[in-house]
Write a structure and sequence with these properties.
Helix content is 43%, strand content 18%. The relative contact order is 0.16. It has one domain: Spore Coat Polysaccharide Biosynthesis Protein SpsA, Chain A. A 7-stranded mixed beta sheet has the order 3-2-1-4-6-5-7, sandwiched between helices. The protein is built from 9 helices and 7 strands. α1 runs parallel beside α2 and α1 crosses α4. With 232 residues, it is an alpha/beta fold.
Length: 232
């Protein structure tokens, strides 16, 4: 079974390329299946240079790098990555691999064994102990809105670890939101279509994860995006 692992990348922390390479190799060694790695450079950033991408190119034989100059947002970047993916299974997470390798394997194995067609990572309570207070409040408020207005069986849609089989890729590519709520849009489309077996999978955060500051200017446009989803 072939797998495409898609990683969006914008302003990553120093040493990101070594960390990504190490996590990728650990993951590959545990599943023993071919893994195509797709790194999408979502605009230019100071921490990404030709030297850092060259390191990946020299150490990962199945690497694809997608680059463009302007930062477009994580949703846009992932659509570009999924477009380029050739695997029978597509998994995506963040460039710093914030969730444990074991969490990634659980989603991959479930997809490989045809237990479901879309695997949605769901954060456990320990996750929120590591999140800044305001960000935690926003996350929980969004879950309340989802429960009240979208009536989905999954309210934690924003976890940065998800996977799906290739037949679901066209639906993912139909999403239009480029930033924070692209995850919600995708999950909403999955449940609305009623075509796919969707399962929520509890995942665990790595102990050494550092959260970057949130740009709160996105809140108003993302609230508008949420309202648009109500009429989708």
């Amino acid at each position: 079974m072939s797998l495409s692992l898609v990683l969006p990348c914008y302003n990553p922390q120093q040493g990101w390329e070594q960390n990504a390479c190490s996590a990728y190799r650990t993951f590959c060694s545990k599943i023993n299946d071919p893994v195509e790695l797709i790194v999408v450079m979502d605009g230019k950033s100071d921490s990404v240079t030709n030297g850092t991408t060259t390191f990946l190119e020299q150490n990962i034989r199945t690497l694809k790098i997608i680059k463009y100059d302007e930062n477009k947002g994580k949703g846009y970047a992932l659509r570009k990555g999924v477009e380029a993916a050739t695997g029978e299974i597509i998994l995506y997470t963040d460039i710093d691999f914030p969730y444990t390798i074991e969490s990634m394997i659980v989603i991959y194995q479930g997809l490989k064994n045809n237990e479901f067609e879309v695997g949605i990572g769901v954060k456990n309570d320990a996750y929120y102990a590591h999140v800044p207070v305001l960000r935690r409040a926003i996350s929980r408020f969004l879950r309340v809105l989802i429960k009240l207005f979208l009536s989905m069986p999954v309210t934690d849609t924003q976890c940065g670890l998800k996977g799906f089989r290739r037949n679901v890729a066209p639906l993912f590519l139909q999403t239009k939101i480029d930033r924070y709520l692209f995850d919600l849009e995708f999950v909403h489309k999955c449940f609305k279509s009623k075509k796919y077996i969707v399962k929520s999978i509890p995942v665990q955060l790595n102990e050494n994860v550092r959260f970057r500051s949130m740009d709160y200017r996105i809140l108003l446009p993302e609230m508008i995006n949420f309202i648009k989803l109500l009429f989708d």
